[in-house]
Amino acid sequence: MNIKKLYYLISIIIVITLFSLRAISDSNLNQEAGSNGSAELGIPTCTSCNSNSEPTCSGSQSPLCSVDQNIPTCQLIGNLCNVTCPITNFAGSNSPFCSTKYFFIDGPGAGIQIYSSNENPIAISFSTNSISLANGSIKEPDQGCAGPESHFNGDILNFSDSDPDGCGWGHVTIFKKLPDRLNLLSDIITTTKHASYNIQAFVAGDYGAALIRVDSVSNSMNTLKNLIAKSKDIKPKNKKIILRLIKAILKQMQIAKLNISSLVNVQGELTQSDLLNRDSAITALSKANDSEIEILKIILKFDVIQ
Question: Quick check: 60 and 42 in contact, CB under 8 A?
Answer without folding.
Answer: yes
